[in-house]
Amino acid sequence: MPETSGILFDSARDFGNNGGMNEEEDVKIEPEQGEGERVEDPESVEGKVRKLREELNACRREKQEYMDGWQRAKADYVNLLKRIETGAKASELKGKVGAVETLLPAFDALERAKEHGEIPEGFLAIARQLESAFAALDLEEMGKVGEKFNPAYHDALGQDAAESVETDDTITAVLEKGWRVGDTVIRAAKVRVAHFANDTQEA
């Protein structure tokens, strides 16, 4: 066989043993143009940002609605407590007024009897008990000699001459005591009032 044939045979054998390439070599595939790192469309990014802002604003509105509702509920609760407290005070005052109005006639009778010295010791004890009960009910006496006349608390049933301008429009006599609980008048005091006549001014 010619020498050239031996050379071809050796080359073919070497090619077959290597499989045309080294099996241990890494196969690298270069990416085609345009298939590298993906870049998002700016319009798409802007749309996502806009959507996130809308969701954030929606959350803020919802939070404000919850806050407004909570504040309304709190205000309603406070108003309810005030109404309950006011109602309780009104009921308490009504009860006091009713009790005093029931006891006043007996107290007035005892007072008149004391003025005439016709009351036994036993009745004096009752009068003192009534006075203690009135004090417990926060009852205040109205109408004392020398006080300034107040039409809100006093009923003027007559006039007396005042000796000076300082005593003008003051109470000179108490015909019947008045009573009140706080600002609530149960009975106005019946009184006589001093009136100062300035002869110089009248002339």
Your description of this structure?
The protein is of the alpha+beta class. Among the domains are: 76-137; 139-203, Roll (Nucleotide Exchange Factor Grpe, Chain A, domain 2). It contains 4 helices and 6 strands. The chain has helices at residues 3-18, 42-115, 121-136, 199-202; strands spanning 139-142, 154-161, 171-176, 178-181, 184-187, 189-195. The chain has a 3-stranded antiparallel β-sheet. Strands 2-6-3 form a 3-stranded mixed β-sheet, with no helix packed on it. Helix 2 packs antiparallel against helix 3 (121-136). The mean pLDDT is 78.
Shape: elongated
**Sequence of secondary-structure elements:** HHHEEEEEEH
The largest sheet, given as strand count, sense and whether it forms a barrel, is: 3 strands, antiparallel
Quantity of strands, as a count? 6
Give the CATH topology of the domain at 139-203: Nucleotide Exchange Factor Grpe, Chain A, domain 2
Helix fraction, binned, reads 40-55%
Give the radius of gyration: 54 Å
Ends apart, CA distance between termini: 175 Å
Helix/strand structural class = alpha+beta
Q: How large is the count of helical segments?
A: 4
Task: Output mean pLDDT.
Answer: 78
- How is the largest sheet built, in terms of strand order? 1-4-5
Quickly give the CATH architecture of the domain at 139-203. Answer: Roll
Q: Which blocks of ≥5 consecutive residues have pLDDT under 50?
A: none
Question: What would you give as the CATH superfamily of the domain at 139-203?
Answer: Head domain of nucleotide exchange factor GrpE
CATH class of the domain at 139-203, anyone?
Mainly Beta
- Percent of residues in β-strands: 15-25%
